[in-house]
Amino acid sequence: MTDTIFTHHLLFFSSSDIATRQHSVASFTSGFASVYRQRRPNSLTISIGCDDRSSIHSVKSTPPNSDSSSSSPLSIDHLDEIKKRKLILQNFAYTHEDDRGSLRIRLMSSGEVDQTCVLIADSIPESSTLSRWNFKRNVTELEFLVKQYLDNQRTVFPHSATLVGFYKQKNNNPGEEEEKVACTVEISFNALGMHSFPSTPLPPRDHPYICNMVVKRELRRKGIGWHLLMACEKLTSLIFSSDNNPHPQAPTVYLHCRVVNLGALSMYKKAGYTVVKTDNILVWLSFHRRKTLMFKKLEQ
């Protein structure tokens, strides 16, 4: 499914030189440091109706306690906003079930980073120009680079979040049904969550941005990509409706789609996304695939 919905590439995956990629990681991981750490209530319950077979809801959790600290003076309202955003992310869940199986999407936990790295790394060779150099031989290094990237993005939580989806396929032997890691996607909600090297055409840094959307190869063409996109939109709407804004506005979400990825382009247009701008053909000179920037204004 990566050929269908993989929407973003990392800068250091676009170089043919190993040392260059490692330098990119080192530069990248020196970015934003997290300065928000505070105690959180035990649970939060949110319920929003979707279609008949899909639902978005919370799951109760007990986050670990941490000492309150901040490297800069922050208003009470801002701290409350950060706290609410963390709770929404930690308790978010999107589920869908049909005749073929069931899908459950939620925030990636620390114990799922390695599985997510493998899923993303497995998608890179077929979705980047590195395939021409048979980058599969360097899959271990690639997984390391992806892990560095994910670890860096976790430092800017809750301004950015990585979701993972678990799929359980139905068969004639119920005892053999097994839930598998099926998909992943990243959402940055503002400039603090946006990584240092976004794709071109450049998206607005102060708007939500969806990237690194991947579905496991053997689970593609089951509608998982569509529901992963819907989960991103529902979560983004939840986040922005919770912000301390007396006049909240519906968020506008941005994403990239490769020009050659006609299946993904069709899916995004069906979901209501509109083309903003497409890369100039000269982008090929930098060994990057041409991409189209798209946006959608979500409902309040």
Explain what you see.
InterPro entries: Acyl_CoA_acyltransferase, GNAT_dom. One of its GO terms (cellular component) is chloroplast. This protein is α+β, with helices and mostly antiparallel strands. The protein has one domain. 30% of the residues lie in helices and 22% in strands. It is built from seven helices and ten strands. A ten-stranded mixed beta sheet has the order 1-2-3-4-5-6-7-8-10-9. Helix 2 packs parallel to helix 5 and helix 3 packs antiparallel against helix 6. The radius of gyration is 19 Å and the shape is globular. The two termini are 30 Å apart. The N terminus is likely disordered.
- Helix content, binned percent: 25-40%
Low-confidence stretches: 1-72, 127-133
Strand content is 15-25%
Total domains, how many? Answer: 1
Give the strand order, joined by hyphens, for the main sheet.
1-2-3-4-5-6-7-8-10-9
Q: Rg, please?
A: 19 Å
Rounded to the nearest angstrom, the distance between the terminal CA atoms is 30 Å
The main pleated sheet reads as:
10 strands, mixed
